[in-house]
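Long-time lurker. I teach an intro course on protein structure, and each term I like to show students one example going from raw sequence to a predicted 3D structure in token notation. This year I'd like something fresh instead of my usual example. Would anyone be willing to generate the tokens for the chain below so I can use it in lecture? Attribution to the forum is fine with me.
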Amino acid sequence: MLQEIVEPAWAEAFETVLRRCALQPGDTVAVLCESQSRPVLVQLAQLAAARIGARAFTLTLPSVSHPQAPPIRSTGACNALQQLAPVIAALAGCTLVVDCTVEGLMHAPELPAILKGANSTQPRVIYVSNEHPEALARLLPDDATETLVKAHVKRLRGAKAMHVTSAAGSDLRISLQGAAVGGNWGSTTRPGTLTHWPGGIALAFPAAGSVNGTLVLAEGDVNLTFKRYIERPITLTIENDFITGIDGSGVDAELMRSYIAAWSDQAAYAVSHVGYGLNAAARWDSMALYDKRDFNGTELRAFAGNFLYSTGANEVAGRYTLGHFDLPMRNCTVTLDGEAVVNQGVLCE
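-- Reply from a regular --
Happy to contribute to a lecture. Here you go:
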């Protein structure tokens, strides 16, 4: 599927997801987009809401340009809302917000006010990741993934420490005390919550000063900000949350050093979140099959058994920045209080 037009299978996929978000006839739906949103995703969201019988409207905002800043990618923080009170009020008064912005509302500063609701209504927000719709249709949420994610979120919330090791040399220790823990399975029915599609991940935002050790990005690991498989190893030295060394002789390390330094922001070197993938349908190799503009990479964040390390904004630690890396890694062992949840890249039962 190369052409981004409305296909029946894609329309059915969108309708399936909105129904899993408990959308009912007569509910109020906002399809939120911006001038640089992928048009077919907006059209599919509009069509799905109409097929269910919801009362839908589309809110389109201008995309914001930052000509003096480095290119912004994969931040999870849409900056199109610009704290506009009428926009926030309109979204807060809906039953469901279908978020078709490029980066999504997950880390947007306006999100808490939206989820708080208005006029006795608390909205649910589903961010439709900026993917080719073929990828979205392959990765529909299901009961099994939802059950698995909920179980691992419970395990994360009950744990005090995470330890990550690998044959490549990773040895990273993460305190989970004071962390904000969550998970995503691709749909939500609870008012005042946000989800993203595709889903299938459990993660934690550690408190300040919680992450120390060494992380080695090996061949075949992924830098999703660059949408690039790692070809030569990169060794990250991490002290009290912050990357203090980026060592490696290849272009992968050079690119990482260059981009992270371009922000001139110490918070760009700090941990954002850590977690691991739980989606058996998601594929590590899928990035090779899409052009960069067609692909946002949520699938690679979620493939079962990956360890996901991310740098950048972490509200729990009081850090905000647009500099961001998402780094899904293969072949790691992840333990919670000494008990393995991922063993050499394979999700444990």
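Some talking points for your students: Residues 185 and 200 are 5 Å apart (CA to CA). The mean pLDDT is 95.
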